[in-house]
């Protein structure tokens, strides 16, 4: 994902996948460390990189997208399918992603539609200060995004920090360590390129371009119905308050040319957003289904 956190947030996801697969995980440079001479980075660039990454791995790739990149992963797969690209993914797994945010809007979705895109640009975008390599690059600062995330569930976060001390006082160091490890990753944020952030907010969360058939890549309309040979799996969390139930499974209808026996959907009970790709239920209940789908599509 390129959503303000580093790929290390998917450490447990990758560790579990490595049990049965060769795993290639994407990570992105912190925008504050990228010089202006390298140019901008837009949603089109993101999709282009996803296509290039998949081509680099080669035919037979199984693409797994977690949260924010689900729209770009679906778009990249559709473009490769339309071009009959030999490296188009064998399977595509979309996990807790905002494919159609019109369905069961969450607080995140309501925030995105509460202001015009000009408000986001004026109030949330700033320039990288010196002496960073990316000085004067326009970015959505990581600390601003972290503040927004924390403010959505302040009571939950405060209780988590209380639990750390309660566990330590009771001698339950392992339980305290689990919470501490999560927040070490959660609080490590990066700056996002302004153009990428603003385009994502507008096209994914405000105008819903993909489900409306209006999303374009380098001037070409993205058509998910072009996907025919890629198996599709969607995964959602029952208690997900970032990408609610219905937003990810919407991809099943968009990919109308994929045969029914190549489609799978799973709703995991009892988990929120992060529980979809980390924790006990990810390891014991979700991953076995993902693995089964991947192996079936390989056969």
Describe this structure as you would to a colleague.
By secondary structure, the protein is of the alpha/beta class. It folds into two domains: 7-141 and 192-298, Rossmann fold, CATH 3.40.50; 142-190. The chain is built from twelve helices and nine strands. Strands 1-2-8-9 form a four-stranded parallel sheet, sandwiched between helices. It has a three-stranded antiparallel sheet with strand order 3-4-5. Helix 2 crosses helix 3 (70-82) and helix 7 (154-169) packs antiparallel against helix 8 (173-186). It is globular. The model has no long low-confidence stretch (mean pLDDT 95).
SSE blueprint and pairings:
Elements: H1 11-17, H2 43-57, E1 62-66, H3 70-82, E2 91-95, H4 107-113, H5 117-124, E3 126-127, E4 138-140, H6 142-152, H7 154-169, H8 173-186, E5 192-193, H9 194-206, H10 209-212, E6 216-217, E7 220-221, E8 231-237, H11 250-254, E9 263-268, H12 280-298
Parallel strand pairs: 1-2, 2-8, 8-9
Antiparallel strand pairs: 3-4, 4-5, 6-7
Helix pairs in contact: 2-3, 7-8
Summarize the structure.
With 299 residues, this protein is α/β, with parallel strands linked by helices. The chain has two domains: 7-141 and 192-298, Alpha/Beta hydrolase fold, catalytic domain (Rossmann fold); 142-190.
The proportion of strand residues reads: 5-15%
Kindly report how far apart the N and C termini lie.
29 Å
What's the CATH class of the largest domain, please?
A: Alpha Beta
* Rg (CA only): 19 Å
Q: Can you name the CATH architecture of the largest domain?
A: 3-Layer(aba) Sandwich
